[in-house]
Design goal:
two-stranded antiparallel ribbon; mainly alpha
Amino acid sequence: MTDKLEADPEYGRKVGEHLIEILERLDAHRKPYMTAKVFSTYVSGGIDARTLPRLNYTIERIPFYEIDAVRDAYEKWKALKEKDGEGGIGVNIATLQALHTVDLMSAASGWGCLVYEPNDLCEVFLNLDLDKTKH
């Protein structure tokens, strides 16, 4: 990726313009650092071209006050799943809905209830420690 950026000035300009466009839409001081980490991980091959825009979407749209709730929701879900074999979570419903809206949780219905579960993007988000970005 770095070689391509250096070898093709037009491509580099387009990538730069796209990054600036993404950064202009961010509403919290730590989100540009999160976006930079995601892009750096993509450039180094740590995530694929499908995951890059999904994470950018999540970072852009997650309410800044819910960023720290992602890991807590994931860990509570994981602990309950290991204990009971079920995926119930003792987390505020508004938080779960916000995380679902930004593609970090999947919702499934059945037996008259709605269950939220962390998805693959949530795991990538946490593996990159995006919730721990404090700048």
